[in-house]
Every structure is written in structure tokens, then in C-alpha cells.
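FORM 12-B: Structure-to-Sequence Request
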């Protein structure tokens, strides 16, 4: 089927052709003809990435009366980012038509929005709170609204906007065409549809299609204190990682992003505490791939629509199936393969099973690669890069230099030296930390019973020292296994680098020698040409700094806290 078969006019088809749209998605093919006819309301089940914006946006554009400079369509979205995205997407379909579209949301100057509304708009896209604000100010009049869209209605329900939505619905004249789109259909959404929609058609994407077939879905069993290390391995294992990492809290986003950034990964946090200007700046950097890892909360990520994401990482397990669908739907789009990886702690295993059941998703268990496997993958990647460089090389002045060096040192010794000089840091196994063995405790009834029995037997027989360390780690005392945790971490600046013949290993040994802080408590070491960085607990940081001051009193401090560190 082509878009031309759906009843769209030539001007709209030209705009679609310009955008590179060729064939409609399932939701578009089923919705557009019905909405053009306008005799039925539509209840559509479709998640992000299925093309639902075009499914309701194109019929709205077709029905706009340009002779009336009034709001004729209102689209409600749960977040400001989604409001901006939907407005931009619909605007891209207008072609040469002088249709005016306004996005109104909190965080933007209300005066600017009032001016835009007074000049006249045909379509308004907005968040419920700001829409109500304009209605109360009488700067938004809905008397001429013929099309009303509730986009991502389940997310509005989750965010507590249903009362505001009902208030807005009561302000719009009867006889409107109502379109409700949701990734899932909880009972509250269905009640809303029955109460406020007329004769409606329900269009449902098949249950097993809630998550894309183009997305490989994996879960990794990992303890909470090993998650950052697991995340680093996932990023390093991907050839060109470009993805979203989901955390449950804003503080969690900040901690994970800081940890990655301090380790040399281009990562930034993205959450609701940022100003709109900051959010737009960060999104622009992410779209341009200046930042390749965006660590976000569910709410903040609602409006992020970035193409070609390679990965979605559920650093924190989603609260429910709806959240899982929304997250995973951000990769595996437009014919591109994607990977969704979920970190699962022992306590969360049953919750993961509920998500698998409710979404119909095939989420496969895989094991994290060991340090040895990570280094092997990197070696193969380096060899492939060199092979490609050799195949693309030309005979030039470097060829002459190469012949002289081979003649002087021999090919094997020469290549080995060049590899060591360029890749020794990248292939240093100390870049990674050991991850404790997952003991397989899961909160289902059978496993709980077995665990109780095991604990009883352990008490009867006694345990060796290693068993007690495992017990302490289960209680949350991770220091002997992992060093400082994220909440108690600070960054050190060390005035020594490669020019001082420092490698990561040598730098850690140097700090340990002066301060007596064990090397296993020093993390995320980054050696630059003239200086270096390392992370440790705030308590150990003070000990290290004071030790270096005592070692060289009156001299320039070799170790200090890095700027912007706690």
C-alpha cells in the first residue's frame, strides 16, 4: 500500500515525498482513511516509533480551514519535549501551506505563547497544565476545535494528568472528532474513552508487536553495586554505542552520568531539574552525537525522538510493562536493528517475569563478558581497523619510512612496538573491575525456600572467610568487593601523566605507596599527557591528599580534588 491509496491530497503527498515517506505503517494505513472521513472517533494502541504522529497529523492538516484563523485542532501530550516533537513533526508535513502550529508548555515564556496565540493558530500542541493555564487566562479559545488528540494517554495517566485532561475535554464543543493514542490500554484509559468519545473504532497493534521485532531484548543478572561496571562493558562491547540509559531517579541519572563522564565516556544526565534551555542544548548535542550516552528518567525521556539509537539500557528495572514498552520502543526503528538491555538484580527477577508476560516480549538471558573476553573483543576490533587501514593505504612517504624501520628492527618487533605504543592503555585489563558472581537468588517461592534451607545448613556447618564476605555484600557492605559506591565518590586531580611515564597501573601503585590506600579502592583512572584523574571515596580522598601534602610539605600539591567534584 502507498500513501496515495489512503485518500490524501496531492499537496500532502508531495510533502510526504519530500520527507522520504514511501509506505504507510500499519497504524497509518488503518487510521488515515477513517480520520479523513471523520465519522468515527479512534482509539489507537501504538507505542513510540510506529508513526502515530503522522497517523493523526496528516488527516488534521487535510481538514484545516485556512479561511478561519482559529484553533481547529488541539493535541495534548504528557511532556514538553513530546509537545515540541509533535509540533515539529506535523509542521514538516505542511509543505507550502500557511498552516500555523503552536507548541505551548511549561518552562517557556508564557508571554511569548500568548503573543503567538493572539496572532492566530490553526493547531495547538500542548501539555495539560499549560493548556488549562491559557484557557483560564482566556488566551486559548477552543470554540472552533474539530479534532482533539490525546497522545500517549497512558503516560498522562501515569503522570497524574487525568483530572486536567477531563477539565479540558469539558471545554471543547460536542461534535468534535476525538483521537486517543496509547501504548497500552489500562482500564482507566478505556473508561475515559467510553465517557468522552462517541462511536469509536479501536485499532490495536498485535500484542506480540508491542515491542519491535527489530529490537533484540536481553536481560543481564547483575547486583546493584556492579551495575556501573556492567554498563561500561556493554558500551565498550558495542562498536558504535549510541543510546539511552534509563534510571529511576534524577539523583541516579546524575551519579551514573558523572561516573561515565569521569571514565572518559561522552555521557550526560537528562532530567526534569534542568531548564528548558539546558534540555534543548543537551538534546542537540545528543542528536549531533557529541554525546553518545544520555542518562535519563522516564518522564524526561518522553519527548526524546532520536533516530538510529543502537541501544536502550534499563539501568533500573521499569516500574511496569507500559514503561518497558515506551523505553524499548526507542530503538529498532525504521528498519534498523537495535538492542534493549535490562539490568536485573536478584530481588527483581519476579518483576521481570511479569513484564515479559504482560508485553509478550522474548527477553533473553545473557551473561556479561568477562574481562578476558572484553580484551579479546578489543584486540579483534583493533586488528580489523588496522586491516582496513592497510587496504586503503597508498604508497607515499610513510612507505619509505616503513621500509627503513623494517630493515633496522625487523617486521615483528616493529609492529609489536607500534601496537604497544598506541593500544596498551586500551588493552589494559585494569580498566575493568571484577564483577561478583551472581548467586541466583530470586524472589519466587521455590527459590526462597531453597535459600532458607541453604542458610540453615550454612549456620550448622559454619562458613569460611569468603562466605562471610559474601554475606556482608548481601547486606550492602560492598567495600571489600568493590571499593567506594557512587553516592560516596569524589574525583581526584593528579599532577602526573604520560610525560612522567605513568600508566594506569603505575599511577595507582604510586598513590597506594604514598597514602597506603589499597589500589582496589581507586577507580576510573584516566591518564592524560600532563595530568591524570582518579575516583575514590571522600574519606579515602582526604587521606590521599593529606598523605601527599605530608610527603612534600610546602611544595605544589600533586593531588587535589578535581573541579566540580564533591
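FORM 12-B RESPONSE
SEQUENCE OUT:
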Amino acid at each position: 500500500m502507498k500513501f496515495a491509496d489512503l485518500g490524501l491530497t496531492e499537496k500532502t503527498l508531495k510533502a510526504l515525498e519530500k520527507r522520504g515517506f514511501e509506505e504507510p505503517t500499519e497504524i497509518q494505513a488503518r487510521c488515515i482513511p477513517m480520520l479523513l472521513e471523520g465519522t468515527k472517533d479512534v482509539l489507537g494502541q501504538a507505542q513510540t516509533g510506529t508513526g502515530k504522529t503522522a497517523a493523526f497529523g496528516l488527516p488534521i492538516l487535510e481538514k484545516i480551514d485556512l479561511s478561519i484563523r482559529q484553533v481547529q485542532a488541539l493535541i495534548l501530550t504528557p511532556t514538553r519535549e513530546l509537545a515540541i516533537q509533535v509540533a515539529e513533526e506535523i509542521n514538516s508535513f505542511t509543505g507550502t501551506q500557511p498552516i500555523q502550529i503552536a507548541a505551548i508548555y511549561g518552562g517557556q515564556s508564557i508571554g511569548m505563547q500568548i503573543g503567538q496565540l493572539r496572532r492566530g493558530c490553526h493547531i495547538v500542541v500542548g501539555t495539560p497544565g499549560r493548556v488549562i493555564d491559557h484557557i483560564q487566562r482566556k488566551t486559548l479559545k477552543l470554540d472552533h476545535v474539530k479534532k482533539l488528540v490525546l497522545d500517549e494517554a497512558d503516560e498522562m495517566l501515569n503522570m497524574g494528568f487525568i483530572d486536567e485532561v477531563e477539565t479540558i475535554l469539558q471545554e471543547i464543543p460536542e461534535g468534535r472528532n476525538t483521537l486517543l493514542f496509547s501504548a497500552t490500554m489500562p482500564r482507566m484509559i478505556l473508561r475515559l474513552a467510553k465517557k468522552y468519545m462517541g462511536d469509536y473504532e479501536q485499532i490495536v497493534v498485535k500484542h506480540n508487536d508491542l515491542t519491535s521485532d527489530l529490537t533484540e531484548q536481553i536481560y543481564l543478572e547483575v547486583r546493584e553495586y556492579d551495575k556501573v561496571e556492567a554498563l561500561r562493558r556493554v558500551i565498550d562491547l558495542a562498536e558504535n554505542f549510541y543510546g539511552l540509559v534509563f534510571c529511576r531517579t534524577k539523583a541516579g541519572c546524575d551519579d551514573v552520568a558523572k561516573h561515565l563522564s569521569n571514565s572518559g565516556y561522552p555521557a550526560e544526565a537528562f532530567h526534569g531539574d534542568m531548564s528548558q534551555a539546558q534540555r534543548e542544548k543537551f538534546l542537540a548535542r545528543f542528536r549531533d552525537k557529541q554525546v553518545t550516552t544520555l542518562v535519563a528518567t522516564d518522564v524526561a525521556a518522553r519527548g526524546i525522538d532520536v533516530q538510529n539509537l543502537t541501544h536502550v539500557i534499563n539501568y533500573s528495572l521499569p516500574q511496569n510493562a507500559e514503561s518497558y514498552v515506551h523505553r524499548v520502543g526507542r530503538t529498532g526503528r525504521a528498519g534498523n536493528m537495535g538492542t534493549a538491555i535490562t539490568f536485573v538484580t536478584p530481588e527483581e527477577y519476579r518483576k521481570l517475569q511479569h513484564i515479559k508476560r504482560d508485553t509478550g516480549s522474548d527477553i533473553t538471558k545473557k551473561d556479561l563478558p568477562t574481562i578476558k573476553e572484553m580484551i579479546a573483543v578489543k584486540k579483534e576490533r583493533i586488528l580489523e581497523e588496522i586491516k582496513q587501514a592497510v587496504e586503503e593505504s597508498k604508497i607515499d612517504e610513510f612507505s619509505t619510512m616503513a621500509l627503513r624501520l623494517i630493515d633496522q628492527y625487523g617486521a615483528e618487533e616493529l609492529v609489536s612496538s607500534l601496537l604497544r605504543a598506541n593500544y596498551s592503555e586500551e588493552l589494559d585489563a585494569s580498566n575493568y573491575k571484577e564483577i561478583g558472581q551472581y548467586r541466583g537468588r530470586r524472589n519466587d517461592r521455590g527459590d526462597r525456600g531453597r535459600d532458607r534451607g541453604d542458610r540453615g545448613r550454612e549456620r550448622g556447618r559454619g562458613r569460611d572467610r569468603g562466605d562471610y564476605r559474601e554475606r556482608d555484600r548481601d547486606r550492602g557492605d560492598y567495600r571489600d568487593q568493590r571499593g567506594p559506591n557512587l553516592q560516596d565518590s569524589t574525583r581526584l586531580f593528579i599532577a602526573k601523566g604520560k610525560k612522567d611515564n605513568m600508566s594506569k597501573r603505575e599511577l595507582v601503585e604510586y598513590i597506594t605507596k604514598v597514602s597506603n590506600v589499597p589500589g582496589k579502592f581507586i577507580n576510573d583512572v584516566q591518564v592524560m599527557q600532563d595530568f591524570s584523574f582518579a575516583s575514590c571515596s571522600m574519606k579515602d580522598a582526604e587521606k590521599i591528599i593529606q598523605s601527599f601534602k605530608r610527603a612534600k610539605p610546602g611544595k605544589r600539591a600533586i593531588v587535589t580534588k578535581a573541579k566540580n567534584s564533591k
